[in-house]
Amino acid sequence: MADDAMVREAKDQLSMAPETASGLDRRSLLVAAGSALVTTPAFAQVREASPRSSQRIDAHSHFSSLKYLDALEKHEGKPFVLGAMYRRTPTLTDSPVRLGLLDRHEIDLQVLVPVPWLEAFPGVVKDQVAAPQMARLMNDELAAVVAKEPKRFRAVAVLPTVNSDAMVSELNRAVKELGFCGGYVAVGPTAKPMDHSDFEALYKAVVDLDVSLWLHPSRPPLPDIIGEADSKYSEWIDIGWPYDTTTAMYRIVFSGVFERHPTIRIITHHHGGMVPYYAGRMAGVWAGNEEHGILQQTQITKPYIEHFKKFHCDTACNEFAPKVLELALDFFGQERMLFGTDAPFGAGDGERFTTEVLRSVEGMQVSQPTRNAILSGNVRRILKLA
């Protein structure tokens, strides 16, 4: 990361220098634009200004099936909290429309993470029969999308967490029969905790198959304050979801998953939750607690913070936030950050999230080889793309 620090210093000096006769280069102009370009008309302008310096592979986007959503809601007997939004977002359920989004942003390949998660449907996720059936339904729907456009899409399997056999069986089927690149599980207060014994077989299977495990936050609008009916001001999704990811990381780390399975690849959403930004506080609190005899309930080796650096993260920052991504990069390291947009959610059916994430990656003060690794090199290695 020393080279990247030098690049940042050089760019800082450049920003204070007079413009050269030939003018600033296109990336400098892009960075200088700052967060002012956030309205919908600016999307096209940003795309024109962004230099195409590398292949672009989106390691975390979403896709759904109306057939799957209808089946889940029918079994549950009530609508999904985000169901109306899903049905109003054609880029989420229509692959030709999605291809238009990819083409407009020159994205070569997208990894599709299916939504909604089974945990949004309590009557399904705990049903020994329905959970595996619904997961199989969605994964088959997703496989059909990939089969039509194998050069543009890869897929991640939704896994039924009802028991370990169901998780492992569906992961094996998805990888070996459908050609998927891994699986994903929902994390949050209503999901099975990631240190539950049922997940041990899944962790082993992920390693044995040499695939990746994606984590996705899933908190419903639970109350933020005891005594209230539900969450206010959208806190449950704005801040609650990054916290859910952080909680899952804690459970995975302190239960010793990385020590038992040192080669496992676990990909966190929203650039690693809160961990990259509170790592100093975390380590400081642990040290202070130990001085007072309050020991962490774990058998893992110290320093604890080093275990958190074994996760991978995506770049789904949702708005122009290059400095945020730089902090995550500094924490996880160059080889563990993957370009991910979280599309097609956000304004404009994925346009805003995609534009702002791309602009953020281009705005990071890092070397070009590092940027190339983020945009495509790292995910190519993980997905074993030729």
Can you describe what's shown?
- The chain has 386 residues and is of the alpha/beta class.
- The protein contains 19 helices and nine strands.
- The strands form two sheets. Strands 4-5-6-7-8-9 form a six-stranded parallel β-sheet. Strands 1-2-3 form a three-stranded parallel β-sheet.
- Helix 4 packs antiparallel against helix 9.
- The longest helix has 19 residues, at 130-148.
- The protein is globular.
- The two termini are 27 Å apart.
- The relative contact order is 0.14.
Outline the secondary-structure elements.
Blueprint: H1 2-16, H2 26-32, H3 42-49, E1 57-63, H4 66-76, H5 83-87, H6 90-93, H7 95-104, E2 109-114, H8 122-125, H9 130-148, E3 153-155, E4 157-158, H10 164-176, E5 182-187, H11 199-209, E6 212-217, H12 235-238, H13 240-254, H14 257-260, E7 265-268, H15 275-291, H16 305-308, E8 312-314, H17 322-332, E9 337-338, H18 351-363, H19 368-383
Parallel strand pairs: 1-2, 2-3, 4-5, 5-6, 6-7, 7-8, 8-9
Please provide a brief summary of the model.
The chain is α/β, with parallel strands linked by helices and about 375 residues long.
Given as residue ranges, the uncertain stretches (5+ residues, pLDDT < 50) are 1-50
Structural class: alpha/beta
State the helical fraction: 40-55%
Question: Which series of helices and strands comes N to C?
Answer: HHHEHHHHEHHEEHEHEHHHEHHEHEHH
What's the rounded overall pLDDT mean?
89
Task: Provide the β-strand percentage band.
Answer: 5-15%
The best one-word shape is globular
Rg, Å, rounded = 21 Å
Tally of strands: 9
Distance separating the two termini = 27 Å
Report the biggest beta sheet as strand number plus sense, adding barrel if it closes.
6 strands, parallel
Instruction: Please work out how many helical segments DSSP would assign.
Output: 19
Biggest sheet, spatial arrangement of strands? 4-5-6-7-8-9
